[in-house]
Predict the 3D structure of the following.
Amino acid sequence: MQAIDRLIAKIEEKNSCVCVGLDPRFERIPEEVKKPIKEKMGETLEGLAQVLINFNYGILEAVEPYAPVVKFQISFYEQYGPAGLKALIESCKISREMGFEIILDAKRNDISSTAKAYADGYLGKVNLWGREEFIYDLDSMTVNPYLGKDGLEPFIEVAQKYDKGVWVLLKTSNPSSGDLQDLTLASGEKVYERLALQLQELGTNWCGESGYSNLGMVVGATYPEAAARLRKMLPRTFFLIPGYGAQGAVAAELEHFFNPDGLGGIVNSSRGIIFARKKDGEDYKSAARRAVLKMKQKINTIRGGRT
């Protein structure tokens, strides 16, 4: 089963296109999660990593009924070195055991030979003393298209080999994304529109049985007008949609991100779910569960009339 078909199956199973971003900020993790680990392991990197794992487990348990997919932003783990990456790998394993689809938000790219190493390390297998093994148990990852076609092809080739997916940055959610992405070319197109057509060509022959491509694109919820144009240009492309909640976008602005079938996108929220509790003493897992259910219900009202 190809990556995009697995994702759609999970979306349909849970009637939800919510993607929960597991981006743990240590200073915001509740003291009830930190305290027992600190007492047992001390103020060590290993103890910190265990805090991340335990916090993620609590969130995953809370949102499992309502979210088909989770996304790990690698920077929140890499900053703690090997201990942080161990926490990421363990959190991915837990996510897999619970049945989530898993996206790694790493935004990697480089010249083709280096891109191949990134692709093998994250999506594929690496050589361990003569045997090949996966290091990360993922379904897909984000990549940066700035180096051009030859920097993307290694990710696509490895993803095809192992039935994984790729999400390419297209129109990102940050305020200054237009500095480059919105520049107008001599043809009259904006940079992101030209890139969309080039990416569509790369993904045309890499579709699942659903008809959607395994090469998805990142389109920020904070730019609904751009999304409306891109949706018409890319009817068989799934969008990974950041910017909901803490970054300012609301459900009403997402209407044009989806196709009439209610598919075509997954909407990410990180802080708005994992740090949803409003006061000390409130159960952070219950708060996350309420937040993800509310988000699911709001988005379903504008995607194909689902409830």
